[in-house]
């Protein structure tokens, strides 16, 4: 007793400590990938800044609506931002300008179109006018070609053929970066190109800057269909700091441009420049989002310069003063209003993906700008997620925020003040670790596995390769010695969650438990923590914005996200060569290879691994651990366990041992249970098929003895059966067996049962009514038997309707003097809902299948009360029916078998009984049956494994015990199944369970075919097997409790509905 209390206390203590640690995140090593940068804000306004708004007068208070066909979007190939903006705003533009054409210094034109973008534009009826540009550093060479008439003509014709061949609407010439010396050559090129294109129904647009020395606006306007002016550049990376496009400058540029209004397209930007004061050569181009991110991370205030109508921000970086001037939604609004006042044909968004989302609202409602200006107060990020870099160490550098600002307008409707309250920030995914030359890291997910991981470790040891293993906690708990070996042999270990959970779907609490349980386990096994983590189901952080909260959460816990861009796809590959080829063909994609060392058959992975290692080295690659790719060491990510956490290790050691025992027990308990279930089904199938062959052979010969027609007494015990008794008697009177009497024994009914029998059958010569005081069903049957005149007694429940040939078929078995009882085939006569349909399936696939099989072995354990025939002499010898159990039919059947009599089954003696139509009635009925059968099992326990009656002792009785034990443990088995899937050998558990379901289904299908009934109810067999058995489990445990308490149970009978019916066509006649 004391030992038990100590053991129990120890287990509770271990569980409590482990549960506590699930919510106590250990302190992990702080690994930083960013170089330390000292940035401090300079939030004072510029001293030389005027407080007066620039004097910009507008001529009109109303403006035209820009036609959608004159809204241009400049798309940048392979830029995530650009694609995202295009897909979102394709409905708001009329012309798409993708940067697909490049003219090289040798005069060739390279096209890099994207089929998906092309299809998107055509689907939405957006004109495609790809951009033709010059690569950086090749402007002089290209323009020299353009200056030559012959090469220019060749270039024009080549461009025409490519545009025409691709069925584009035209082309957009953007030679940004040419010098003033190229002015005439550029004009000549546009002139000649426009002549060819115009003649063939194609359009030409020319992009120009506001540098009048480089572009001949007047001449270009004569040739090009549209002139797209980049309406920014007042200050840029080659000038001193200043506004990018002030209001005054914008108005002046428009007034000075000799471009007709019907051809003028203004291109508005959303970018800026970061000037290092005193070091102008270090000026950097920034997108608006770059500015927002920098300001948000460093508490920098964005200021508004009223004199220019442009925003700016100031800060110090490593002691150097910086100033940023940039364009945003407010400047776009002002420029758009000024341009509309001047008169323009359309607007171009200079770089899709970097504009404020409000841009498109303004362009759609250019005739109502004053009504939409307030919409600028709320700013959404263009994309919810921004990827920086394309490497495999992934860091979320900011959390997403919607932006908020306050704006003020002047008398002209122009914005005169802008104050940012909160910056619009998407999630930023910064990716590190790819700039390491020809270095490759090998990683494995989902292990460890007892079969495959040691073989992989052997190969790595032989080849002298250190790798990364991202282990699943439940696997590490089962194989701690393998994890310990990983660390001992120099490999890096990371977490892959405890159960291979999808963190995108996990709650924060679940994520914490998944990571903490695995972390503490790794610490207990290796003595070191790990901050390496790879989430299951992703290798490159391919998450949506709603799923990124958990990514930020595990990063805040101290974990480093390690991806993999070289995916071997070994989990789906069928051969070694396939794995090798996939890896070697993807080496340009990244620096970390992903394999799996568990979760399936990894034989091909093991065969491929040494081949891949050899080929990588042959191609000049150095194989390193992943930490080296990030410029770190293993000790940076796996530090020794601190003294403060050592106290938990002993508890995790004990918990791990308990876990291994539980998982092993669950696995084998489930496997053995399923295996026994399958063997039982196959056993029943074999002997039922044998019975069917024997039965068919006998029925071909007709009756055993045509002259055998003994007098039969049909006994119907009745208690409160007024709704069903009439139908039962009438069905018996329709029997084709004439030599019978019907004895109705009323056991003190309190309803009108007696009145019904008297009213309808008082004058019938074959029907007798016996009344007695209530004494229970066995006493009613015995009363009928004592007054019965027949040598064969057939007992029917009062709710049973029988087929016309049922009695004849039952009686025929008694030509064999060894036969003491015959069981009929009980069927459900009121299949009206899911509950009765499931009972219908149970009767056919369970009880009746058993009877067919057990007939062959003389071990039928119950002749049912609904329809059973008895030799009077045999039951008289054993004292008729006893009332010391609630299952008198089972009790007397077992007594006959133990006396050496034969009990058989007549499959075509069909009786249709009424089944409970709701759960309450079902449980009430099954409780009585179960309680009674338990009584019988205990009463006849001496028959279990008794060699005197081998069939009963070694088949019938063990089957009864097996059924009730298995049904009673069904909820536990289902729980073990779920636990086995989560923490055990998933493939084995699932395989055995599916095997059982498949065998069960085909046995059920065979049984239904045997009974010649519709198989449609089997469509829900899988659901029935799971749900229906829970009711059985409840009744079994209720019976056990009642038995232990010594509670007595009476008739506890079902309230009749009278819905049981014979089938319209009695196929039994053909039997």
Folded structure, characterized:
This protein has 1071 residues and is an alpha/beta fold. The strands form six sheets. It has an eleven-stranded mixed β-sheet, with helices on one face. Strands 34-33-32-35-38-37-39-36 form an eight-stranded mixed β-sheet, with helices on both faces. Strand 24, helix 13 and strand 25 form a beta-alpha-beta unit. Helix 1 (2-22) packs across helix 22, helix 22 crosses helix 32 and helix 29 packs parallel to helix 30 (919-939). The longest helix has 57 residues, at 643-699. It starts with a helix and ends in a 26-residue tail after the last helix. The relative contact order is 0.06.
Key terms:
chitin binding, Nucleotide-diphossugar_trans, NODB_dom, 34 helices, TIM Barrel, Spore Coat Polysaccharide Biosynthesis Protein SpsA, Chain A, 18% strand, 11-stranded mixed β-sheet, glycosyltransferase, alpha/beta, 43% helix, hydrolase activity, acting on carbon-nitrogen (but not peptide) bonds, 1071 residues, disordered C terminus, 8-stranded mixed β-sheet, single chain
Topology overview:
Layout: H1 2-22, E1 39-41, E2 71-75, H2 80-89, E3 95-98, E4 101-103, E5 109-111, H3 115-123, E6 127-128, E7 131-133, H4 139-147, H5 149-165, E8 170-173, H6 183-199, E9 203-208, H7 217-223, E10 226-230, H8 247-256, E11 264-268, E12 271-276, E13 284-287, H9 288-297, E14 302-305, E15 310-317, E16 320-326, H10 329-342, E17 346-349, H11 358-364, H12 369-372, E18 378-379, E19 385-388, E20 393-398, E21 403-409, E22 415-422, E23 427-432, E24 439-445, H13 453-463, E25 468-471, H14 473-478, H15 480-488, E26 492-495, H16 508-526, E27 532-533, H17 548-556, E28 560-562, E29 566-567, H18 576-585, E30 592-596, H19 603-618, E31 622-624, H20 626-629, H21 634-637, H22 643-699, E32 712-718, H23 725-733, E33 740-747, H24 753-761, E34 767-772, H25 777-787, E35 792-796, E36 801-802, H26 806-812, E37 819-828, H27 834-855, E38 867-871, H28 872-877, H29 888-898, E39 902-913, H30 919-939, H31 950-968, H32 970-983, H33 986-1011, H34 1021-1045
Parallel strand pairs: 2-3, 2-17, 3-6, 4-7, 7-8, 8-9, 9-10, 10-11, 11-17, 19-23, 24-25, 24-30, 24-31, 25-26, 27-28, 29-30, 32-33, 32-35, 33-34, 37-39
Antiparallel strand pairs: 1-15, 4-5, 12-13, 12-16, 14-15, 15-16, 18-21, 20-23, 20-28, 21-22, 35-38, 36-39, 37-38
Helix pairs in contact: 1-22, 4-6, 5-6, 6-7, 8-10, 13-19, 16-17, 16-22, 18-19, 22-27, 22-32, 22-33, 27-33, 29-30, 30-34, 32-33
């Amino acid at each position: 007793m004391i030992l038990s209390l100590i053991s129990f206390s120890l287990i509770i203590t271990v569980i409590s400590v482990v549960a506590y640690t699930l919510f106590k995140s250990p302190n992990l090593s702080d690994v930083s990938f960013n170089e330390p940068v000292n940035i401090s804000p300079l939030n004072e306004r510029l001293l030389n800044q005027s407080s007066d708004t620039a004097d910009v007068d507008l001529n009109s208070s109303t403006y035209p609506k820009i036609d959608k066909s004159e809204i241009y979007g400049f798309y940048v190939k392979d830029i995530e931002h650009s694609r995202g903006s295009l897909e979102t705003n394709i409905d708001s533009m009329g012309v798409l300008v993708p940067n697909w054409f490049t003219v090289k210094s040798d005069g060739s034109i390279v096209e890099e179109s994207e089929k998906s973008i092309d299809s998107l534009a055509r689907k939405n009826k957006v004109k495609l006018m790809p951009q033709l540009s010059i690569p950086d550093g090749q402007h002089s060479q290209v323009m020299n070609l353009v200056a030559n008439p012959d090469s220019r003509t060749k270039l024009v014709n080549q461009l025409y053929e490519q545009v025409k061949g691709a069925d584009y609407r035209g082309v957009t010439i953007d030679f940004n970066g040419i010098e003033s010396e190229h002015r005439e050559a550029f004009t000549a090129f546009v002139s000649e190109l426009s002549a060819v294109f115009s003649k063939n129904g194609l359009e030409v647009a020319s992009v120009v800057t506001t540098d009048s020395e480089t572009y001949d606006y007047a001449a270009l306007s004569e040739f090009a269909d549209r002139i797209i002016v980049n309406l920014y550049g007042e200050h840029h990376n080659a000038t001193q700091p200043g506004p990018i496009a002030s209001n005054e400058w914008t108005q002046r540029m428009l007034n000075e441009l000799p471009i007709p209004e019907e051809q003028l397209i203004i291109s508005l930007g959303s970018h800026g420049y970061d000037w290092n004061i005193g070091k102008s050569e270090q000026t950097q181009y920034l997108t608006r989002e770059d500015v927002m991110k920098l300001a948000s991370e460093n508490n920098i205030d964005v200021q508004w310069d009223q004199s220019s109508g442009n925003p700016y921000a100031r800060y110090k970086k490593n002691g150097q003063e910086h100033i940023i001037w940039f364009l945003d939604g407010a400047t776009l609004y002002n420029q758009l209003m000024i341009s509309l006042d001047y008169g323009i044909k359309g607007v171009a968004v200079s770089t899709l993906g970097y504009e404020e989302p409000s841009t498109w609202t303004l362009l759609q409602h250019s005739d109502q700008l004053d009504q939409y200006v307030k919409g600028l107060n709320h700013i959404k990020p263009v994309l919810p997620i921004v990827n920086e870099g394309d490497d495999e160490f992934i860091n979320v550098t900011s959390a997403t925020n919607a932006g908020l600002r306050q704006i003020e307008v002047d008398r002209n409707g122009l914005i005169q003040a802008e104050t940012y309250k909160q910056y619009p920030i998407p999630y930023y995914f910064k990716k590190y670790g790819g700039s390491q030359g020809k270095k490759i890291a090998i990683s494995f997910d989902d292990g460890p596995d007892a079969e495959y991981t040691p073989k992989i470790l052997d190969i790595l040891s032989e080849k002298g390769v250190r790798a990364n293993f991202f282990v699943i906690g439940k696997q590490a708990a089962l194989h701690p010695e393998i994890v310990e070996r990983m660390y001992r042999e120099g490999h890096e270990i990371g977490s892959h969650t405890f159960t291979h959970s999808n963190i995108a779907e996990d709650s924060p609490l679940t994520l914490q438990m998944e990571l903490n349980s695995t972390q503490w386990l790794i610490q207990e096994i290796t003595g070191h923590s790990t901050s390496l983590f790879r989430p299951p189901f992703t290798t490159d952080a391919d998450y949506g914005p709603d799923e990124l909260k958990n990514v930020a959460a595990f990063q805040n816990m101290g974990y480093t996200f390690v991806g993999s861009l070289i995916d071997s796809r070994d989990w789906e590959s069928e051969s070694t060569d396939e794995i090798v080829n996939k890896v070697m063909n993807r080496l340009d994609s990244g620096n970390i290879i992903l394999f799996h060392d568990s979760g399936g058959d990894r034989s091909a992975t093991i065969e491929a691994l040494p081949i891949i290692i050899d080929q990588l080295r042959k191609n000049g690659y150095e194989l390193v651990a992943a930490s080296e790719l990030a410029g770190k060491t293993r000790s940076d990510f796996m530090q020794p366990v601190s003294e403060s956490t050592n106290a938990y290790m002993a508890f995790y050691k004990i918990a791990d041992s308990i876990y291994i025992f539980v998982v092993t027990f669950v696995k084998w308990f489930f496997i053995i249970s399923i295996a026994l279930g399958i063997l039982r089904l196959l056993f029943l199938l074999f002997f039922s098929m044998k019975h069917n062959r024997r039965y068919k052979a006998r029925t071909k010969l007709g009756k055993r003895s045509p002259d055998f027609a003994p007098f039969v007494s049909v006994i119907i015990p009745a208690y409160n059966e007024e709704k069903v008794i009439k139908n039962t008697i009438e069905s018996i009177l329709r029997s084709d067996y004439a030599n019978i009497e019907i004895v109705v024994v009323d056991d003190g009914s309190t309803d009108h049962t007696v009145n019904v029998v008297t009213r309808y059958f008082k004058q019938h010569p074959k029907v007798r009514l016996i009344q007695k005081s209530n004494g229970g069903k066995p006493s009613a049957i015995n009363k009928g038997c004592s007054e019965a005149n027949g040598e064969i007694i057939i007992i029917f429940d009062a709710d049973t309707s029988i087929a016309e040939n049922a009695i004849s078929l039952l009686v025929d078995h008694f030509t064999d003097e060894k036969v003491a009882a015959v069981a009929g085939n009980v069927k459900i006569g009121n299949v009206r809902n899911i509950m009765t349909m499931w009972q219908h399936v149970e009767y056919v696939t369970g009880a009746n299948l058993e009877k067919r099989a057990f007939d062959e072995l003389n071990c039928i354990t119950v002749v049912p009360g609904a329809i059973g025939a008895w030799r009077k002499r045999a039951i008289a010898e054993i004292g008729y029916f006893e009332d010391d159990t609630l299952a008198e039919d089972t009790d007397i059947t077992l007594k006959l078998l133990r006396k050496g009599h034969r009990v058989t089954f007549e499959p075509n003696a069909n009786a249709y009984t009424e089944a409970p139509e709701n759960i309450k009635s079902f449980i009430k009925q099954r409780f009585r049956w179960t309680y009674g059968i338990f009584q019988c099992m205990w009463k006849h326990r001496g028959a279990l494994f008794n060699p005197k009656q081998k069939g009963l002792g070694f088949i019938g009785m063990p089957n009864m015990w097996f059924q009730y034990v298995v049904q009673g443990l069904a909820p536990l088995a289902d729980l073990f199944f779920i636990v086995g899937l989560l923490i055990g050998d998933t493939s084995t558990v699932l395989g055995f369970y599916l095997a059982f379901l498949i065998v069960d289904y085909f046995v059920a299908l065979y049984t239904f075919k045997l009974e010649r009934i519709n198989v449609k109810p089997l469509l829900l067999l899988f659901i029935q097997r799971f749900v229906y058995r829970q009711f059985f489990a409840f009744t079994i445990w209720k019976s056990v409790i009642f038995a232990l308490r010594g509670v007595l149970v009476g008739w506890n009978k079902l309230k009749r509905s009278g819905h049981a019916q014979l089938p319209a066509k009695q196929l039994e006649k053909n039997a």
